[in-house]
Amino acid sequence: MTExxxxxxxxxxxxxxxxIGKASRVLEEAKKCGITGGTIMHGSGTVSSxxxxxxxxYEVKKEILFMVCAREKTQPAIEHISSLFHFELPNRGILxxxxxxxxxxxxxxxxxxxxxxxxxxxxxxxxxxxxAAGLGDEVVEASAAAGARGGTLFHGTGAFAEKCRxxxxxxxxxxxxxxxxxxxxxxxxxxxxxxxERMQLDxxxxxxxxxxxxENVRGVR
Length: 221
Fold this sequence. Notes:
Oligomer: single chain
Strand content: 35-45%
Distance between the termini: 48 Å
Structural class: alpha+beta
Number of strands: 12
CATH topology of the largest domain: Alpha-Beta Plaits
């Protein structure tokens, strides 16, 4: 059994949400910046265009890429990815990062849990809401009414469920929707309250919601 070596370096997880078929290209470019790998999941994003919604297009297929990297590689990687894929333009994708507090299984390294990292106050939060299959749209509606601008919906069904049995340590089955909302910190409490009320998450068994700070946000206007 390989021993995990204690490491006092800091790490981030980089999240990238792009249209279907683009995540593998993003990962290729990230590897040029020293990132060793990532995980791609499939989902759908809500459509904000009034014209598209009028003619019946309410969502577009999306991919979300998760990559863990050492802190010193975070900024070069996100700047390279953002500029190459033009996240400053509408509908090209979004990117954000969050600090990692536990890290195991990466090249025999273990993040030293006694180390404290300091961060500037984040201007965004990201919410993940897990509910029964078919209820994800209600989460999106509730969050939008409270000030969130769209969301990304993942279905825990079919082939996708086979590849993703856990998200952040939470077991999935064939009947779960996962909704990701990236929101500004000023509306985060309102969005959280709206989702909890609409989905009755204070009742056991109705679902789970958790959030964390989002830093280095790109592609959100």
